[in-house]
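Morning. Coffee machine broken again, so started the prediction first thing and wrote up yesterday's gels while waiting. Chain of 811 residues, entered below exactly as on the submission form.
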Amino acid sequence: MRAEGAVYRKNALRGRLLAGAALLACTPLSAMAQTAPAQTPPPAVQDGLGPDSIYIEADQAGREGDVISATGERDRVYARFQGHTLRGRAVTYDLDQGIGTADGDVELIDPDGNAVFASHLELDSDLKAGVAVDFATRTVNGASLMAATAVRRSENVNELNYALFTPCPICDDEGNAKTPSLSIQAEKVVQDEELRAILYRNAVFKVGGVPILWTPFFAHPDPTVERASGLLVPIINYDDGRGLSVETPYLNVISPSEDWLISPQFNTRVLPFLNLQWRRRFENGTIVARGGYTYAQNFGDFDLNGDGQAESNVDFGDRTSRSYILAHGKFDPEGPWRFGFTAERTSDKTLFDRYDVIDPYQDNGLYYGDQRRLISQVYAEHQTDRSYVSVAAFSIQSLRVASFNDVTPALNQFESDGTLPLVAPLIEARWEPASAVLGGRLRLRGSAVSLYRDEYFGSPVLRPELVPTGSTVGLPGVDSRRVTGQLDWRRTFIAPVGIRYEPFVDLRTDVYSVADLPPMLGLSDETITRSRATVGLDVSYPLIRRLNDGADIIVEPLGQISVSTDPDLDPRIPIEDAQTLELDETSLFRMDRFPGYDLMEGGVRVTAGVRTTLRWAEGRKASLFLGRSMRDAEEDAFRIPIPDAPANLYDPSGLAAQTSDWVVQASFQPSDRIRGWGHATVDGSGDVRRAEMAVDGRWGRRNLATASYIVDRSNPLDGPNNRNYEFVQLAGQQFVQGNWGVAVAGIADLERDIITRSEVGVVFDDDCFRVEIGYRRDNTRVRPTGPAEGIYFRLNLATFGGSGYGSNGLR
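Came back before lunch.
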C-alpha cells in the first residue's frame, strides 16, 4: 500500500549529525562508506507543515502506539519535517522517546541543503546523541569525512571510528570513485565543535593512497572554520646571501576579529629574521600591522679585497638592529567622515630584498607610494552626495637606487630621503549645488598644500632657469605652499541627429609661496599669483551599424576646442605634482592633462580623435582609438634638461610642440579565454615614444599564459643617466599529463640585453594541493647579493592552512 499525504504529530527532530556545510557523496564513496546516490536532492521547500508535523511517502506506513514506521520496497521512504528531508528503506520514529531511526541508503538533508549519508542512522529529538553506520559527509570546501561508525557523544562532540579524512576530490568528473591524492586515515577521529578542531588517534598520512607518515596524535581546524590557530604551510627558499631559508608561519587566532601571525625565518648562512603581523577588526574599522626584526651584519656581494672582484655571501659592517614596519588602518564610522593612516619604514634600504619580505609595497591609505617607495600618512575624508573634503599629511622613504655599482651591488647608492618632500597638509575639496546652474552642472574645487624639503633637488623640480651651474652641495631644499580655487561648468545638448555638444567654462586661480630658492640666483622668498580662464566645446557623434549575425560596429568621432588665457608658467614655481604624464584616451581631452596643479595649459587648443568598437557574439569585442591635439604655439615650459646633457632640453610629455604625440589605444577580447590591450604614443615622425601592451589566454581547464611588453624611448640621448627602458615579461603553465605540468616565468631587459628574472619548474596540481619545484635566477641590479640562482620549492595544501600576509578573513 502506498500511503501519501499522511501527516503525524511528533516531537521536534533536529536536522543533521555533524556540523558542516553543503555535503555531498558519490557512488561508491570508499570501502568504509556506504553506497550513496550520485545526485543530492535539493533542500526541502516551505511546505506549510506545522512545527510538530511530519509528512511521509512510503510503500507501506503505519503506527503502533507511539511508534511510526514506514518501509519502501520499490522507492525509499520519503519523510519531511521542519524543513528537513529524510530518505531510507525503513524509517521509524518513537513519539514518546523522541528517537528516530532509518536504515538502508539513508539520506538526511537540512533546510540549507547540508546532508549526511549512512546505512543506519539513529538520532534523538534534540540531536544530543546519535549513531551512524557507514557514515559519509562532504563539506562546502570539498573536504570529505567517512567512517565505519559515527557517534554523537554530545551536542558539541562527534566521534568517528576507523575514519578517513581528505580535502581532495574522491569522485572523478563522471561520478566514479577515485583515490584521493592526499588523505588521513585514523583509528579514531573526534570532531569537537567547541574547540573547532578535528583530533586524530593513530593517524596515517597517505599520498595517492600510499602511506608516508604515521603519528599517534594529530589535529587540525574543523573544515568549517575560516581561521584557526596553528602552523601554516612553510615557505622554503634558497638565496646566495641567506643560503637555505625556511619560514615557518604560525597563526594565533585571538578572537573572530583579531589574530597574530608569527613567522620566523631560519637561514643557514645568516642569523634568523622574525616576521610578525597583527590584525584587528573593530566595529567600524581595521588595523593591520606587520613588522620584522633581526640583529645581524649586512651581507651580499662585496669587493672585500678591493681588486674589482666581488666575493659572494660576505658579511660586512657592524652587527646592529635591523627592522621594518608596514602598518595601515582605516575607520569608517557612521556619518560622512572616515579616516585612516599608514606607517611604512625600514632601517635598511635593502632589507626587503635581503630577506625576501613578502609583498612590502602595497596600496593602502588615501595616497599610495610607488614601487620601492614607502609612505607614512594620516588622513581624513568627508563625503556627501554633493561635496568632498580630504585632509592628509605624509612623508616618503625611498628605496630606489640612484647609482648602481656593477662590481659590488652591496654598495649601490640610493636616493636620499632628504630630497623627497614632507607634505603637511594636503587639502582637496569640491562642491556641487543640488540644482542646475544655467541648465548645466557647476562644480567648485579647492586645493591647498605645503611641502618641505631638507636637501636640494634640482631638475625636474626646479625649472632649467633656476638650476645653479656650480656646486649645489649644502644648498637647502626648496619649500613651497600653494592655494588653488577652480570653477568648472558644463552643459550637455543632444541634437536630433544624435550629435552631442558639451560647452564648458573653466576658471582657475593659484597662489604660490616659495622659499629657499638657490641664493646665488638672487632670488628670495617669492609669492606668485596666476590665473587662467577657459571656454570650450566638446563634440561627439556616435554612429552604429548593425552587421550580420547580431554583430555591430560603433564609430564615434570626438572633438574639442578650447580657448584659454595665457597660463603664465612662472619658472619660480617648483614642479612637484606634474612630473609624470600618461597621455592616453582619457587624459587627451582633459582641460588639465598634467596631473596635479603645478603645470597647466592655456592658449588655443584643438583636439580630435575617433573611437571604433566592433562587438559580436557572446560579449566578444575589439576597439581602437586614435587621437591627437594641436595648439596655437609651442610651450617650452614643458621641456626639461636631458640628464646626460643638461644644456639641452627634451619633451617627455609629448605636449610641448604645436602638435602633440599621436595617441593609439586598442583592446580586444575575441573569446572569454583570450583578451589583450595596447597603448602607445607616437611622435610626428612615426617613432614610438612610449608603448605598453599585454595579452593573456587560457585553454583547457588550467593552462594559461600571459605576455606583456613595455618600452620608453622619450629620452633622445644615450648616457649613464638615460632612463629609457624596454622589457618583455612572460609567464605560463601547461599541463602535459593529467595533473603534471610545467610552469615558466621570465622578465627580459631588452635595453641591457639580459634576462633579469627567470623561473622554470615542474608542477603537480590536482585541486587539492599544488607542488612546484624548479630552478630560478635573479639578475636584478638592485639585489645587494648580486645575481642569485638556485632551486625553489612551493607547496600549497588545501584545508590544512595557507601562508601569507593578506588582510582578509577578519569578521
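Residues 351-354 form the longest helix (4 residues). Going to sketch it on the whiteboard this afternoon.
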